[in-house]
Amino acid sequence: MTAENAPKKIVLAYSGGLDTSVILPWLKERYPGVKLVAFAAELGQGSELSGIEDKARKSGADEVVVMDLQKEFAEQYCFPMLRAHAIYEQDYLLGTSIARPLIAAKQVEVARQTGADAVGHGATGKGNDQVRFELTYMALAPDLKIIAPWKDKSFELRDRESAIEYAEKHGIPIPVSKKKIYSQDRNLWHISHEGAEIEDPNAEPNWDACLTMTSPLAKTPDESEIVAVEFEAGNPIAVNGQNLAGDKLIAKLNEIGGRHGVGVALLVENRLIGMKSRGVYETPGGTILYEAHKALEQICIERDTLHFKQQIALKYAEIVYNGQWFHPLRESLQAFIDHTNATVTGTAKVRLYKGRAMAIGATSRHTLYDSKLASFSMEGYDVTAARGFIDLFGLPMKVAQQAKRW
Q: b/e for 286-322, b at 16 or more Cβ within 10 A?
């Protein structure tokens, strides 16, 4: 990038973690005179943002903006994804994927408010987050420059060890060490863990070292617990009869589910850019919500519609994983999904025990479940209609089999 095209003011997605901590001083060296705005999104990281403004300024930030986005994250990002029942590659509930578009969208807002001409992130050139950030920038603010140090040829930090050395040299406090190099991402919906022994696909992770939101199975209660979740049009609104805002509801379920070891996933996933990676994901509250939502959909949505929606969910999950939240296709699919969920209203009960969350009952004023039709009694049901139905339904198979003899 030439001096004429160099950014004058950058809004950096800042977490206070290793990567963004070292990037702040590096940007000052890379672009002399540049102004830096450290933007931190409060998405439910717990104590991770404690003292973040002071830390950012000591690391080189000229301005610091911290936004509490927990309620918006829960209700406008997590819940639409829940209504879709999106799961990536059978196990991943998309906790990191769903957060990045919100962070990037707010970065764009801050850039407009502060007169910045660039936005930046600390995602590496190997991961998915670089795509999620940059696709959002492109969709919402194609005029802004995108600064991605890990893809800058002059960026001399090529691994986490060198980044730690750089931080120590510049006196930047960081939450990792060379002895414990887990890459972790936490928000209200989940926490992910990558690196160290987790990278070995044949090794069991050190659960005591990495589990944060959930208890190891050996430390979970010996008695099960039933939690009741109430929904309105596909959105969770209450837990055990207590109405809660979206962020408070997820936090409550995280506490309950975490106590029972619910929502831990260990998987090798296919990254968007082509490689496979292995990670541990903890999503206790989200796992309970998915199980409860599934139970209500089963009784509230007509068969063909539900089956087609399940196909849509695979594509929706892929879209979210790939960072295409603001893509017209995701918005169009959302319209279909929300229409199907208009009647997903009621309460589902989920039993929690030793890492398992299982829906054990659901009730809704929109239920399609007819106990008389479902029973073994033939009263009021024309059994002779089944014979003709089977004859016609099986006719293509019958003809095909006959053709084999000719």
A: bbbbbbbbebbbbbbbeeeeeeebeebbeebbebbbb
Q: Give the span between the Cα atoms of 28 and 230, in whole angstroms.
A: 50
Domain ranges of the chain: 9-181, 186-363
Phi, psi torsion values for 32, nearest 5 degrees: -55, 130
| Cα gap 399→155, rounded to integer Å | 68
Residue matched to tokens 């019958």: 398
What's at 213, amino acid-wise? M
Closest CA to 294 of 355, 239, 229: 229
Question: DSSP characters for 322-391?
Answer: TT-TTSHHHHHHHHHHHHHGGG--EEEEEEEETTEEEEEEEE-TT----HHHHSS--TT--THHHHHHHH
The tens digit of pLDDT for each residue in 66-106 reads: 999 999 999 999 999 999 999 999 999 999 999 999 999 99
Q: Is the pLDDT of residue 216 over 70?
A: yes
Which CATH class name applies to 9-181?
alpha beta
Residues 145-164 have pLDDT tens digits of 999 999 998 888 777 778 88
Can you read off the two tokens belonging to residue 130? 């670089």
Question: What is the rounded average pLDDT for all residues in the chain?
Answer: 94
Q: Which CATH number fits domain 186-363: 1.10.290.10, 1.10.10.60, 1.10.760.10, 3.90.1260.10?
A: 3.90.1260.10
Question: Considering the entire predicted model, what is its pTM?
Answer: 0.94
Of the chain, the end-to-end C-alpha distance in Å amounts to 73
DSSP per-residue string spanning 315-336: HHHHHHHTT-TTSHHHHHHHHH
* Spatial separation of the C-alpha atoms in residues 346 and 7, rounded to whole Å: 52
Q: Which two tokens stand for residue 356?
A: 């398992």
Which residue reads 């903890």 in tokens? Answer: 282
Tokens 């479902």 found at:
374
What's the CA gap between 127 and 158, in Å, rounded? 14
Q: At what angle do helices 303-321 and 95-114 cross, to 10 degrees?
A: 60
Residues serving a catalytic function are: 19, 100, 129, 183
| HSE (side-chain half, CA atoms, 13 Å) at 232 | 8
